[in-house]
Amino acid sequence: MRKFSKLMASAALCTASMAHAGELEVTHWWTSGGEAAAVAEFAEAFDATGNTWVDGAIAGSGGTARPIIISRILGGDPMGATQLNHGRQAEELIEAGLMTDLTELAEAEGWKDLVNPSSLLDACTFEGRIYCVPVNIHSAQWIWLSHGAFEKAGLPVPANWNEFVAAAPKLEEAGITPLAMGQQGWQQNLAFGTLTLAIAGVDAWRKVSVERDVDTAKGPEYAAVFEAVAKARELARDSNVQDWNLATNLVITDQAGGQIMGDWAQGEFQMAGQVAGEDYTCLPGLGVNEILDTGGDAFYFPVIDDEATKEAQMALASTLIAPETQVAFNLKKGSLPVRGDIDLSAANDCMQKGLNILAAGNVLPSGDMNLTADTQTQIEDLMAEFWTSDMSAADGQARYADIIASAE
């Protein structure tokens, strides 16, 4: 693994030491309406500790924000705290000594007894030390369906992916785009992963994503997945939006029948005043295989050589995982809490579905926990090309198998 120079680390420490005591610039990529409402809960809770949240929102997706975040840390201009995903995204920064060790705080507050599932905290752990605080569980395996769109087409709301595909011609006859899809590789890759679990199943997914089994990636289970992705591409051909929340808005406004998107889409439905089970339906696992991954967001704290700033960092880390903060944030974000000891009886129909799946233990680690950022990027690039071209399912599968063959 690549090592960063001691000189670069020293520059980060020296520059950051000028940060104002009690003020923390917090970088994140939560900029849609629902996301902004959720992150405001974090800021309010942190400000209540006597410190000050200085918002450093970066417009765009995580794929846009992460290179900016990492470049700043390496370049000697670190923020006080930053959002990243659970998993391996910060691994090299940790190895270079540029991220703060949170182990003492985690042990004092008993995070190992509180965080559920335990894999979330494991994903924050490097060589036995804890370097991030997980704040939510985001699962990608959902399809969101517009009641108004299906009513307009004279159809019942589908109960699964197969019924959705069967309903597509009637939606098109009614002038409705069957599948909303933003034109970004990460969104298309999310749909690919979701279809994989629904169609190939958990065992095949695990062989490929965890065990790097190339034969399975080349086999019939994944052939069926790529055929399904090719069909989804056809259903989304008239979806000409870029960002995920714009695609969600097509569903909210009944211009599209559905969207494959993570549970953060709930925040957009809530901001629009829509009610789960009345205005829209959510199907975990596409209604085929109700199992969810346990991806999500975590906060890391770059090393800063200033005692007051360090205290503020620890205060923020503690605040992010506090029970009341977890409830307030996740209810607005649409994600599940990382604590297993809090009351979410106020959660809507979709969040209750997720909580029930979590309680039953029907969860898997996310791709970020299994594959390196480089491998993930290669798959996203492949999906971006697949969705915007006439690449055959067979060619897409062959190229995907090659990526898995070289994955670390």
The helix fraction, in percent, is: 40-55%
Please tally the helical runs, counting DSSP H or I stretches of 4 or more residues: 21
Number of structural domains:
2
The gyration radius over C-alpha positions equals 21 Å
Please mark out the parts with pLDDT under 50 across 5 or more consecutive residues, or reply none.
Answer: 1-20
The CATH homologous superfamily name of the largest domain equals Periplasmic binding protein-like II
Tally of DSSP β-strands: 13
Average pLDDT score: 91
Strand arrangement across the biggest beta sheet: 2-1-3-12-6
SS strand fraction? 5-15%
CATH topology of the largest domain: D-Maltodextrin-Binding Protein, domain 2
Shape: globular
User: From the helix content, strand content and strand pairing, which structural class follows?
Assistant: alpha/beta
Terminal Cα separation, in Å? 11 Å
Q: Major sheet: size, sense and barrel closure?
A: 5 strands, mixed
- CATH architecture classification of the largest domain: 3-Layer(aba) Sandwich
CATH class of the largest domain: Alpha Beta
